[in-house]
Amino acid sequence: MQQTSTLPSTAAPGLARDLIQAFELEEESRDLYALELLDRMVHEVFPGRIALVSSFGAESAVLLDMVAQVNRHIPVIFLETGKHFTETLMYRDRLVRRIGLTDVRDITPAEEDLEAEDPGGTLWKSAPDRCCHIRKVLPLEQALEGFDAWITGRKRYQGGTRETLPRIEAADGRVKVNPLADWSLQEIRNAFKARDLPSHPLTNVGYLSIGCAPCTSPALREDAPRAGRWNGMEKTECGIHASGNQWE
Ligand code: SF4
């Protein structure tokens, strides 16, 4: 492990909103493996001010397990949209028990937003971007209040806007840490085996990427990694990663 840091061991809260800080962190952390990067971010740079956001989807177990190895008390935010597969909710509970995470937070949409915009629960059909906005984007904004940084499980091989994903970026006044950005699908599979992690039950029946039930379909194994999400629509992302300042 090589560190050439010129950054204070604990960054001041205001600095977390600075793109320059994110750039410096990326430069300084270039030689750190994913687990080392996580350890540094959680314990040295953003102690008590960083959370993991997880969908508990097809590949989520790898990052959840890594975070638990670093600190199993770190807050884990799960956007409970009210539209998840039952299998996902059961898998979430099983994984949490298995890994030993102690602070998993179910974040739900505001009742008034649902009553005003989606009383019948079918907004996903007519206006999926708006549905994601009230069920994911707004609740996440609230859930992240008080945090200067968050960890995501996105990878470059997932394609689309993720192809140039840095391991550390700045967006909406926070630093986003993507420890697995440069991992391959094979490395994810290897990690499942090496750590004997349980797989999401829907991956055994043809689902490659798993989000809300109405917007997720099975796909072929040779399809793109995020095939099956918002089938037949232009939409490829839910909106929580819509803005950002990236480089590379
Ligand atoms: S993924 Fe679909 S159901 Fe879930 S919040 Fe977005 S549009 Fe709504």
From TrEMBL:
Residues 50-218 form the Phosphoadenosine phosphosulphate reductase domain. [4Fe-4S] cluster binds at C131, C132, C212, C215. Gene3D superfamilies: HUPs. Its EC number is 1.8.4.10. It comes from the Bacteria. It catalyses: [thioredoxin]-disulfide + sulfite + AMP + 2 H(+) = adenosine 5'-phosphosulfate + [thioredoxin]-dithiol. It is found in: Cytoplasm. Its cofactor is [4Fe-4S] cluster. GO terms for molecular function: phosphoadenylyl-sulfate reductase (thioredoxin) activity. The active site is at C238. Its main location: cytoplasm. Keywords: Cytoplasm, Iron, Iron-sulfur, Metal-binding, Oxidoreductase. Binds 1 [4Fe-4S] cluster per subunit. Catalyzes the formation of sulfite from adenosine 5'-phosphosulfate (APS) using thioredoxin as an electron donor. Belongs to the PAPS reductase family. CysH subfamily. HAMAP family: CysH. This is Adenosine 5'-phosphosulfate reductase.
